[in-house]
Amino acid sequence: MRLRRTTPGRAVRACRAAHLLSLALLVAGPGAAPFRDGLDGLRTRLRARDKWARAEAVEELAREGSPAAWELVVEALADEKGEVADTAEVVLAALEHPEALALLGGEDGLRSKEPLVRARVAELLGRAARIPGEVPLAKLLERALGDDEPEVRRMAAWSVERALAAGRLGSEARAELASDLQKRARSDRDALARGRALAALVRVDPAAARGALDAAWRERDPLLRGAAAAHLAAACEPGLALERLAALAADPEASVRRVVVEALAGMETRAALSVLVERLPHETEERLAARLVERLQHLSGLKHRRDPRPWRDWLRGLPEDWRPSARAESAPEPEAADAERSQAALAGLPIVSKRVAILIDLSGSIWNIRADGKTRKELVDAKLREALEALPGDTRFNLIPYTGAPIPWKPRLVEASRANVRAAAAWFEARRDNGSGNLWDAAVLALEDPEVDTLIVLFDGAPTGGPRHRLELMIPLLLERTQARRVAFDLVLVDGTKKLRRSWSELCAGSGGRLLAVTF
Predict the structure, then answer these.
(1) Is 484 exposed, middle or buried (0-12, 13-18, 19+ CB in 10 A)?
(2) Are 443 and 483 in contact (CB under 8 A)?
(3) Model confidence at 337: pLDDT above 90
(4) What pTM value is reported for the model?
């Protein structure tokens, strides 16, 4: 059995998904030309059994653009199919009519009984470029920040960050939000929500964020220390930020150290690089050590590896006011010396982590029968067993195949002993599960294990089923969820189109992971 790297065409199912992803969301105002079905017809199509018909009806309603049409779009946020609800979430960011704006704060929006609906509204507010006026947007964000559900509060804080970055919140709106964010950044019960509130507060009022940072970087929860590490340089004076990051560089939790590496590299100073270089001989996590070297190579333009001595020699020759050269800044990320660090590979993708969850899509085409009479699943069985048997004994791993729901082999990572490897391979080979491909829930489950630093996903790139479907939402949401711990996504994309490959490359680039496109 042999794998070839290529990007062939998709099956009919993926073509329909790609069609929805590529539709232009040109939102017309009231008075636009009537659609073939009219408003009543579109309302009827929203009750169709076919989820794609419902999703297309949502997009047509958005282009129709009347308050009555927007009301139906907001109602679609509660659709049981992610393909439909995600589409509503995407197009609602273009809502601009003041008379329809109240819908986002109403019973089908931020006052919905469904937490996921409220989280969807809180998220889309960060992309809502057309909401008229700063204060109405701030009022909606303020309501979401006070929600009982941590996911809603986190999405609201993230939306504050994005709205500020886009220039949609002025001084009056900032003042309205600052006190709520300060309270959340100091005392939110949920670590992820507190970390995101801290990030938003740094943008809204860096001076006010310093007190919350003083507490967070010493917290027992590594997610809070990681969140603090990501924002120390933005809120504190450089000397203090460097002092605290240098202390956190030796944090006992690898998740914190991963954030520190990125924060120090982002400072782009000689002193920060010195901390990174001195960390090299002490870093025990393989994936993190590799990333540390990559960041040094990228900033310097040099190709030194793990040995700190040539890096120290280079540092001694730098002036105190050193900044990266244009050549180093623009240089592409260096290819990791994968063969040097790993003997294990899944379908050709080197496994460079020793804390890895492997997710495998068991939906759809994996059960297709090949010309040799075997299914693709049988090919994956062999490739997975080969990869597991090559794992170093000190690796910790888990398997999470998925269809409409994740199917974890173990609740948490386990050591790659011979007995565990044999048991895991046999367990996977015996799986006969089939159904839709709910990648979102599988990824969220994998990320609940705090030890995981890498998710390897073998899939066809077109999620089906589950609460998330649209890649323009899913990819930023996955990166947001890992902002306080920097988990890498390594993807094996099987028979994926060029468009899917481009989309998933954004996740790999944003997380420090890699993508390998193959065909079976």
Answers:
(1) buried
(2) no
(3) no
(4) 0.89
